[in-house]
C-alpha cells in the first residue's frame, strides 16, 4: 500500500513485477479512462509512463473511488493490481487502505507519546541502544495487549481505546520507575543520573 506522494509508473511497474498485489492512492488529476465498469462501483483502467503519450506499454489497473461516510468529504482514489472485483471487492479494499494508517499511529504512539518529545537513548553502545529499543517495543506491545484485552471484554473495537490514556494510567500505577542504566563493556553500570 502506498500514499499519493509515493506513486509513479516506473515504481508501480517495478513493484507489481515482484508479484505483489498493490493498492495505492493516486492524485485526482491522473487521467484514468473507464475501460470496463464493475458491479461494485470500481472500474478497469490503465496507467502509462508520463512521457509515453502513445501509451505503448500501459499497465492494467482497477480504480476504486469513494468518500468515507461521516468523514470530512475527502474523495479517495485508489488503484490496484487486483483487477477481479470478485477476488477483492471495492469496499474491502477501501477499508483495508484505511487500516494502513494504523502503522503510522503506532510509530506516533512510540515516538511521541511513549518516548516523549525529548527522547534520547542513553546508551552509547550499540548493544545498549538495541536493548533500549526492544524495551520501548515491549512496553508498547504490553500496553496494546492491555488495550486489546480490555476492548475484547467490553465488546469494543481496540482502535476506539486511547493509547495515551492507557499509557498515562500505567504510569500512574508504576510507583517507582526503574533507574537502571545500560551496562558498559568496560566499567559496568553507569552511575544513576537523577
Textual characterization of the structure:
By secondary structure, this protein is an alpha+beta fold. The protein folds into 2 domains: 4-99, no CATH class; 102-177. 37% of the residues lie in helices and 15% in strands. The chain is built from 5 helices and 7 strands. The chain has a 5-stranded antiparallel sheet, with helices on one face. A hairpin with a 5-residue loop joins β2 (36-37) and β3 (43-47). α4 crosses α5.
Quick recap of the structure?
This protein is an alpha+beta fold.
Domain count: 2
Question: Helix and strand string, N-terminal first?
Answer: HEEEEEHHHHEE
Fraction of residues in helices? 25-40%
> How many strands appear in the DSSP assignment?
7
**What overall form do the CA principal axes indicate?**
elongated
Kindly estimate the percentage of residues that lie in beta strands according to DSSP. 5-15%
> What Rg do the Cα atoms give?
23 Å
Distance between the termini: 45 Å
Low-confidence segments: none
By DSSP (H or I, 4+ residues per run), the number of helices equals 5
The whole-number mean of residue pLDDT values reads 84
The biggest sheet amounts to: 5 strands, antiparallel
Helix and strand composition category: alpha+beta
Strand order of the largest sheet: 1-5-4-3-2
